């Protein structure tokens, strides 16, 4: 079986991150669990987590991480502490996106990560960073501001996210507190191509369109959208696909249709509630505009994805997050989304 395991490993090295690659890695996990060493089983799960994150299968990443964390705690000397903690950052960044996990569970994981950072000799910069994003998702702006100050004042160490990811989040934070001009200035190095990583500038492109419209930078917004249209690919960027779908629903229905047809299955297959919620909000905006005219062209999944169905899905997800978070922030988020759409429509009408 080791020959089969090694053969699969060689195959996986040449595969792009995809469901097919996950299937190969899952077979390797099964072989390692039954016939090989615990170390083999651990290492292949680490590879599996990386692939799962890269294609947006966060729920599968969480299962694999839980197994690895348990094994690490039993024999920490056998495994890389740094590699484990790097993956742990993914957990605290993504777990809250699933309303199936209670606030108590999410908070407990955050605190465990914090304790391990201190125990293993890292500072708390990544903890503060991820906490800001988590609190913003609940509409807790003042609490997020406190953690933002701690994040910015704590030096970078080996566990900090790459500079491009941090710069992107600095900008997002400014946008969320309505410091639009500051946010655009913050992400300027990313937009100029000076800071990149596996998810940047893709995420940044989708985040700056509405702020640019607020600043009446219509031509730049269109230019950024054109760049985003070329580079945002795959299920990992579900929210980003939604933002592009919104923009092109207003500015180019043909492109919007292509984005929708190419990405709707990502949304239907996703198990990550927050990403799916945001994407479905964008799809609803698209379908409302699509149905304003009689069209012969059929859309992908048009028998299933109707406006009535979307209303039910969005309402169910919003209710799940509101109940989990103990507030009605997600309802406010939906209202803000609708306002942004109207802003986009007005901005485009001014340019037409």
What does this structure look like?
The mean pLDDT is 95. Helix 14 runs parallel beside helix 16 (273-290). The chain is built from 18 helices and no strands. The chain starts with a helix and ends with a helix. The chain has 352 residues and is mainly α. The chain has helices at 2-13, 19-35, 38-54, 58-74, 81-94, 103-119, 125-137, 141-153, 163-176, 180-186, 188-191, 202-214, 218-231, 238-251, 253-269, 273-290, 307-325, 329-351.
Shape summary: globular
Strand tally, please? Answer: 0
> Which spans have pLDDT < 50 for at least 5 consecutive residues?
none
- What is the average per-residue confidence, as pLDDT, rounded to a whole number? 95
Brief descriptors of the model:
352 residues; 0% strand; mainly alpha
How is the secondary structure organized here?
Elements: H1 2-13, H2 19-35, H3 38-54, H4 58-74, H5 81-94, H6 103-119, H7 125-137, H8 141-153, H9 163-176, H10 180-186, H11 188-191, H12 202-214, H13 218-231, H14 238-251, H15 253-269, H16 273-290, H17 307-325, H18 329-351
Helix pairs in contact: 1-2, 2-3, 3-4, 3-5, 4-5, 5-6, 7-8, 7-9, 9-10, 10-12, 12-13, 12-14, 14-15, 14-16, 14-18, 15-16, 16-17
